[in-house]
Amino acid sequence: MVSVVYEAPGSVADAVTLLVNSDITASVLAGGTDLLIQMQSMVNETRLVVDLKKIPEMMNAILDDEGLQLGPCMSCAEFTSREDIKLVYPGLVESAYLIGSTQIQGRASIGGNLCNSSPAADTVPALIANNARCVIVGPSGERSLTVEEFTTGVGENCLAKGELVSLIKVPRPAANTSDAYLRFIPRSEMDIAVAGAGVSITLDEDGICTAARVSIGAVAPIVLVVPEAADALLGTKVDTTALQAVADAASAASTPITDRRGTHEYRRHVVGVLAKRAAAIAAERVRGVQS
Amino acid sequence: MTKTHVTTTINGEVIEFLCEPSDTLLAVLRNELQLTGTKEGCGSGDCGSCSVTIDGRLVCSCLVLGVEAEGVEIGTVEGVADKDKLHVIQEKFLEHAALQCGICTPGLIVSAKALLDENPEPTEEEARYYLAGNLCRCTGYDKIIRAVMDSAEVMRGDAQS
């Protein structure tokens, strides 16, 4: 185990100061469900750990007419218990509910899931489907990126020294819009995605799709946006033909690896099936509200 | 390394301890505070043997640093019984023989209590999903689920009377 210097600042500004001024490797601690495991395998290293959970705005979620302003460190357990958020973004809440066990959800956060930057992060396709942005604060001020711009590789992202994600902003969906997230794992609980798909769909009064976002996870070094899959939905009634085109586009966009959870060919096929089914669920959710 | 002083509340009692900032809460509970009811299984958040509650939320204490306990309320298996009187869940685990080797049992008791505090009337499916993070290699889970469902029924009856 690593030797730790622990700090729990009370404000984002203090956290940034600690991170910038550190002359040893610094890690931001949110829920710790990834970080503590990573630290177990380190030896002879001293590391600054900056715990963000004592900063009130990192732990809050505000839902208003503009959308959701999510404190990145709020636990998934608290997030998934918020019925108001579930009504607006059912797919995003589902994605958080799929992470690990009840115990893991008690600590793990959506900001941590994003910053850990795994290609299999469950909440990321759901965030991308919902056009989410992340606000990054650092020594030179504040900047905002789309979630799909944030991750740059396996375990790699845009954060520079001294920077942290201070807020996740999810815009309020247009009228007659809903979302869904599905993932596949070899067992019914407690595993990491073999493939995942997040979809957001807007339908007009006649049930014609006027806007869509499709994002797929665990099938490339980063979570992908698939505009071809979204385009396949536009102007359709989300019928069987359109859904098959979504599946084909998602499979075609994927470049998965083969590992013990699944082969390249299998993941390619499954991600198409998930994208198609998630699109069907999102459309059904809109129709349910419309009728 | 200098040790860090932490003030926390465990099972309703204010407790102070010193720990290395790299110590897990699990290590502090077992080694510093002699609260050895909480078990170490995997040490990586997969098995649930070290389940405790922090401010009412179920967590794996192996994935929490001891220093993170500052100012929070922790619940461990030692706080489930009322002195010598076992909690209904503990009685039902005995009655249904919902344990064999017993290593997973404290974690399961803490998790089952968190489930029933949150949701007094779970379906069997809800109970199985909620407890999916508590691995038991002996029982095959059926007796555990029967004990939890039976506990829920008794606790609902007690709440009404």
Question: Overview of this structure, please?
Answer:
Chain A is an alpha+beta fold. Chain A has helices at 12-21, 35-40, 76-80, 83-88, 90-97, 102-105, 110-116, 123-129, 147-150, 227-233, 240-253, 264-290; strands at residues 3-7, 26-29, 46-51, 61-64, 67-70, 133-138, 141-146, 151-153, 156-157, 164-171, 177-184, 195-203, 209-217, 224-225. In chain A, the strands form four sheets. A five-stranded antiparallel sheet of chain A has the order 4-5-10-6-7. Chain A has a four-stranded antiparallel sheet with strand order 11-12-13-14, sandwiched between helices. In chain A, strands 1-3-2 form a three-stranded parallel sheet, covered by helices on one side. The longest helix of chain A has 27 residues, at 264-290. The model of chain A has no long low-confidence stretch (mean pLDDT 96). Chain B has 161 residues and is of the alpha+beta class. Chain B folds into two domains: 4-79, Ubiquitin-like (UB roll), CATH 3.10.20.30; 88-160, Orthogonal Bundle (DNA polymerase, domain 1). Helix content of chain B is 35%, strand content 16%. Chain B is built from five helices and five strands. Chain B has a five-stranded mixed sheet with strand order 2-1-5-3-4, with helices on both faces. The longest helix of chain B is centred in the last third of the chain and has 19 residues, at 142-160. The chains are: A alpha+beta (291), B alpha+beta (161). At the A-B interface, strand 1, helix 2 and helix 6 of A face strand 4 and helix 3 of B.
